[in-house]
Automatic annotation (TrEMBL):
One of its GO terms (biological process) is protein transport. Residues 366-551 form the Membrane insertase YidC/Oxa/ALB C-terminal domain. Residues 42-65 have a biased composition (Low complexity). This is Membrane protein insertase YidC. Required for the insertion and/or proper folding and/or complex formation of integral membrane proteins into the membrane. Involved in integration of membrane proteins that insert both dependently and independently of the Sec translocase complex, as well as at least some lipoproteins. Aids folding of multispanning membrane proteins. The gene is yidC. It comes from the Bacteria. It comes from Terriglobus albidus.
Amino acid sequence: MAEIKNPNQQANAGSSTTMLVMMVVFLGVFFGLRYFGPKKQPTPATPAQQQQAQQHQEALQQATTTAVANPTAASVAAEGEQTTTIENAVYRITFTNRGAQVTHWILKDYKDSHGAPLDLVHKTVAAKYGYPLSLYSYDTSAMAKVNSGLYVASATGNLTAPATLTFTYATGGLEVKKTFTFDNSYVLGSRIEVKQNGAPVRALLTWPGALGDQENTSHHTYDQVDTSQNGSETHLAAKKVSGGNTLNGPFDWAGISDPYFAAIFLPENPATATIVTLSHPIDVSKDGDGKNLISIPALGVAAGDISGFSSVRLFAGPKAVSVLKNVKAADGKTTLEPLLDFGFFGVIGKYLFLALQAVHKYVPNWGWSIIVLTVIINLILLPLRYKTMQSALKMQRIQPQMDAIKARYAKYKVTDPKRGEMNAEIMELQKREGVNVFGGCLPTLIQLPLLFAFLGMLPKVVELRGAHWYWLHDLTAADPYHILPIIMIVSQFLMQFYTPSPGMDPAQQKMMAFMMPAFSGYITWNYASGLALYWSIGNLIGIIQQQVMNRTSLGREMKELAAKRARRRQPATIQGRR
């Protein structure tokens, strides 16, 4: 029977080819610009500034020499190691007076992969290359001295924000004073003063490398150095970061981030700000199980002021839209919101996420929020689906005339100029009958950018990190049982089967029927499960909508026309004598 063979699957060869070409072009543009597009580099230090850095280095070297030559100089140091813990509603930070640096930076609202409170201090990197809020200088021996000395803390034990904590240390003419201020946000303030015999010496406050949630290579794939200069942001991937490279301002902000968290310095004096990019090799597990170790770069940043005394604020927390838009640079206008980089279709991705957040206000579960948003999008696209069906019906009505035109030119080769006349006749026929060649591609033209926007947005949204939905424990991670990708493959095949498409070549029909499900399954198999959820629900809704439209008068007419053509194409049966 014709319906068993699904004559509705007939489609114009040119339309299917056009859709395939558009899909390939979209993929090429998206991934090409995302990974190979040019990146604007921050301004490197000028020779004069490099000379100034060298002078500061010599000053610190003199400090070490003076300390040895003048052991009776005034010194300030604690007798033993002590800790101070600062706590507010969103974090708990533990300082040690050895180097006046941070050993733990706990974010209370987030968990690591083991379900424990997330510590932003990367233990492996910190033990090897230094802890957050240590100092960076161009003299390694002086840096080791100021980062290992026992500072005198203004308070020990437990403190509750708002609070101020000061550390002081002095030896051999070298004086260091660190002052930190805390409020109820993710941002803390700092004032760093380093002097050698009373003269300012440039020393930078550092986040030496990586963040605590970067436990395997899947997270480190997205490590980057982020900067903003005069309101224009730059995101540098790990492979483009040079360790020890000095960059001078102006800087609105600068730091490091992964898909979900960031450590960003905000200078109080952007015009005279300076940063040093850091890159250290570390061994990380490919699968997060402690095995299959590979060496990758752990990124860090040191920030301060070329004058020597540095006043910088530090944001260390989640890359949540609601948080980032409220953290402003010294100009009071530039925010940290550009840290959320959703790729080539980032503008669409941003508004999709804002829409998802709006839905989440009324639907507490993020998985159900994705489903509700998918339903809304498909309802908005329903009129376009109907228009597509009308266009397909018009195409099907004139298909016999198009076949007759093609038959007249069948004797000519594809490269023959006569083929151009054939195409001109077909286009004239379509124009005369009011057929829009691209009418059937309109929903695809709209849905592909939405799909790519979800593709770039979902794996980088901290709100979905660890979000549960039935068997899914993290909507930003792949479906562990591949249930959704399998549903998506089957539903994609059914979409191809039930969607009417006039006049398709059988070979192309088979190619599209199997290639599209395979393509979509490949994308979602090891990708964010939130994308597979969106795509699968969209397919199921599309199948229901198509089944309803197939039962309308328009749909029945298309089926009848397709069935007639299918019967005409069947070879005649010759009855033999018994």
